[in-house]
Amino acid sequence: MGGDAAPNMVLAGADLARQRHPGLKFLLFGDEAQIAPQLKLMPGLAEAASLRHTTQVVTADAKPSLALRRRDTSMRLAIDAVDAGEAAGAVSAGNTGALMGLGVLVLGTIPGIRRPAIVSYFPTRKGGEAAMLDLGANASCDAETLQQFALMGDVFVRTLLN
Question: Residues of 37-75 as b/e, b for ≥16 C-beta within 10 angstroms?
């Protein structure tokens, strides 16, 4: 439910991911009244998705501390699904600080990794794709943290981009 033009642009992104990776399944969390009509327009995504209704969202301007206290938001329920083993990962276009805080609170970090990092990948001029980590989430990083980001980036690229 987060991000500009949600939920339409979020559903469009999920449909693009489904096309790129045909075996993916999706758990969608949010307001059924807003999501279901758009999902009907995307039959391929609708077939690969399950929708879990909630009307509670973390707004873009919400303080992360507020999001940490709420257990009924679409973002929290998505992260809880990862924690419960129902989902392999959570994707959000919403409040970044809340997402990072909830992720650490609910899921923790990998042993040996002090901070999570936001990652995205994008096309390169040569026709490939490149990954970038820590897209502004950390105001300052020491050498050890940067090394950990490099390690996480390496694993991400090898796993998702082959």
Answer: ebbeebeebbebbeeeebebbbeeebebeebbeeeebbb
Name every residue whose Cβ is closer than 8 Å to that of residue 93 and which is 6 or more positions away in sequence. Answer: 2, 3, 4, 6, 9, 10, 13
Q: What is the pTM of this model?
A: 0.82
Distance CA 81, CA 84 (A): 5
Are 84 and 90 a contacting pair, CB within 8 Å?
Answer: no
Instruction: Give the single-character DSSP code of 44.
Output: H
Predicted confidence pLDDT, tens digits, the chain (162 residues): 888 889 999 999 999 999 999 999 999 999 999 999 999 999 999 999 999 999 899 988 888 888 888 889 999 999 999 999 999 999 999 998 899 899 999 999 989 898 888 888 889 999 888 888 887 667 788 899 899 999 999 988 898 777
Distance separating alpha carbons of residues 55 and 72, to the nearest angstrom: 8
Of the candidates 49, 50, 51, 76, which has an alpha carbon nearest to the alpha carbon of residue 62?
76
